[in-house]
Amino acid sequence: MRQIPARMRVRYTKTGRIRYTSQRDNARAWERALRRARLPVAYSEGFSPRPLLSFSLALPTGCESQAEYTDLRFGHAPEGAADFEVGTSWDEGDVNEIAHRLGELLPEGLDVISACSLLGSEGSLQEEVTSCSWIVEVAGMGATELTERVESLLGAAHVPIERVRKAKKVTDDLRPSVLSLTMEGQGASPGALRLRAELATKPRGVRPAELLGGIDPTLTLVRASRTAQWIEVEGGRLEPLTADGRLLGTTAPQATECGR
Q1: What is the reported pLDDT for 69?
Q2: Domain that holds residue 199
Q3: Domain co-membership, 178 together with 249
Q4: Better-scored residue on pLDDT, 40 or 194
Q5: What pTM value is reported for the model?
Q6: How much is the mean pLDDT over the chain?
Q7: CATH code, domain with 88
Q8: What confidence tier does 96 reach under pLDDT thresholds 50, 70, 90?
Q9: Has residue 256 got a pLDDT over 50?
Q10: Residues 45 and 155 in one domain
């Protein structure tokens, strides 16, 4: 029986109709794929054990993404219940095969694009990601007026927006969370204009719809795609795993071309 590492990270996209599913539905899709792939997934303890999967920041329902991440943890499966076992003699070719197998079993729209082993020093993605890059397409305003609204937001000291938190309406300052924002012209959708933004995730993440509320509440969100998630490292920023398979802080490609 071939061996696999105790942990691995997978990068994948979420596009098409599946963007309307929730984060919980996304987790269930991964759990089903792992069972069908005959992998020795590690489970939590307690009355209702769950597979030990760790996801990156939740993607707002209806948004697409080119940079989603799942950290997988493996354990010891009953004899004959898995095609791999956790060990120390694995290689990245095995990791690539596992990622390819998962990519074939995931629903349409969840496409694995790279994977790598984890050695144990990597932290929680939800805790370590500090900002996300977005492409947002909007309608309801001309290019000149939208450019003026963007410049006004960037020049403001405070941009109050209303959010719902724990079933209560609260007012937050959006401005510290907008790290960059530019209007790039026509979008891919007919009649839409394209914005590119980098939004901080701490102390709270910002949804594309909330960004539009800070620009001008009359804007309509046509489409939004998360293009990158960023972790701060020694004054710079890096992706947790690049599309060509480079793990955070490494230069050599790991496992690549994993999708279907």
Answers
A1: 96
A2: 127-236
A3: no
A4: 194
A5: 0.88
A6: 88
A7: 3.30.70.580
A8: confident
A9: no
A10: no
- In the structure, what pLDDT confidence band is assigned to residue 29 with cuts at 50, 70 and 90? very high
Same domain, 244 and 155: no
Q: How many domains does the chain have?
A: 2
* Packing angle, helices 143-155 and 208-215, rounded to 10: 90
Co-location of 202 and 216 in the same domain: yes
Same domain, 98 and 137: no
**Beta-strand relationship, 178-186 and 84-86:** unpaired
The residue written with tokens 């029986």 in the block is 1
